């Protein structure tokens, strides 16, 4: 649980960093450099584990590549693109939808049972997402005029939820070896995305502030947080681990207000209450159910 709390704290900082990067480095340059730096670090730290586990990793390269493409490169690319059209507060709250997407995915993919109370929690969380996306305006929602940055964040959330679910069946190899392959693949997958950015003449190489942002992103949300998250999922399972992402909206909102001076509107508070309340209802019931089973 401690590992997952630290993970969400670093991810929340990523939302703030994405705003600080705007104008100082372009989104796909961030994605390429962050995973390139992490891949270089992992080649120094985990090469022994990687060599020893390669025979077990090789048959799963396609699935690992897909996980890296969607969970690392795809999620991050959309995340940093979203920062150009929405706020860090919005990004944090929308990222909080990941736990409920995980629950829904677990139901369809693994047959995980969803109770009525959990379903109510899912509906409340989704309502909170709609409140953010519509900026608290029913007229905006009825006209389907959604901020493109918020829409990108929702797609990114689906990508990361898929990655979380896929971790359930990851190869039984040392976490560092697995992460090393993921980081290397993610850096390779980001090359076509970088090429598209270059072809559109939107590529911005990092300034000094851009490099500082990239170093933070590489070491904290990319390196330490990913290792912590994989270990957390391994210890308590994807359903329970996904719930900890509900801390991201809280941490991100506080950081955005304190560090960026962003406005926290009434609809942000309402959405935050709905997202966290929905997740709390679903998780509280799950914990009570586990407790009753343990007593029996």
SSE topology:
Elements: H1 2-21, H2 27-45, H3 47-57, H4 61-82, H5 88-95, H6 98-110, H7 116-133, H8 138-142, H9 148-166, H10 175-199, H11 208-236, H12 238-243, H13 247-260, H14 266-295
Please bin the fraction of helical residues: over 70%
Give the ordered list of helices and strands. HHHHHHHHHHHHHH
**Which structural class should the secondary elements be placed in?**
mainly alpha
Strand content: under 5%
Q: Nearest-angstrom radius of gyration?
A: 19 Å
Mean pLDDT, rounded to whole units? 84
Distance between the termini: 25 Å
Shape: globular
Major sheet details: none
Poorly predicted spans: none
How many strands in all? 0
Helix tally equals 14
Describe this structure in words.
The protein contains 14 helices and no strands. The chain is mostly helical. The two termini are 25 Å apart. 48% of the residues are buried. The model has no long low-confidence stretch (mean pLDDT 84).
């Amino acid at each position: 649980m401690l590992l997952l709390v630290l993970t969400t704290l670093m991810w929340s900082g990523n939302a703030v960093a994405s705003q600080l990067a705007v104008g100082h480095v372009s989104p796909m340059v961030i994605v390429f450099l962050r995973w390139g730096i992490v891949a270089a670090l992992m080649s120094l730290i985990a090469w022994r584990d990687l060599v020893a586990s390669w025979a077990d990793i090789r048959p799963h390269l396609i699935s690992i590549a897909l996980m890296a493409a969607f969970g690392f490169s795809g999620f991050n690319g959309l995340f940093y693109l979203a920062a150009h059209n929405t706020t860090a507060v919005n990004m944090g709250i929308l990222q909080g939808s990941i736990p409920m997407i995980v629950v829904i995915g677990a139901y369809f993919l693994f047959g995980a049972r969803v109770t009525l109370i959990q379903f109510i929690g899912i509906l409340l969380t989704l309502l909170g997402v709609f409140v953010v996306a519509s900026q608290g305006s029913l007229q905006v929602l009825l006209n389907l005029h959604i901020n493109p940055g918020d829409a990108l964040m929702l797609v990114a959330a689906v990508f990361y939820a898929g990655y979380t679910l896929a971790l359930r069946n990851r190869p039984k190899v040392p976490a560092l070896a697995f992460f090393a392959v993921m980081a290397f693949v993610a850096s390779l997958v980001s090359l076509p995305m970088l090429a598209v950015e270059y072809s559109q003449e939107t590529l911005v190489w990092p300034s000094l502030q851009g490099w500082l942002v990239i170093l933070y992103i590489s070491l904290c949300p990319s390196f330490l947080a990913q290792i912590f998250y994989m270990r957390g999922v391994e210890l308590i399972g994807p359903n329970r681990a996904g719930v900890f992402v509900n801390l991201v909206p809280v941490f991100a909102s506080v950081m955005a207000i304190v560090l960026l001076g962003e406005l926290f509107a009434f609809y942000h508070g309402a959405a935050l209450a709905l997202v966290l309340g929905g997740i709390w209802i679903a998780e509280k019931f799950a914990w009570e159910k586990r407790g009753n089973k343990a007593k029996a």
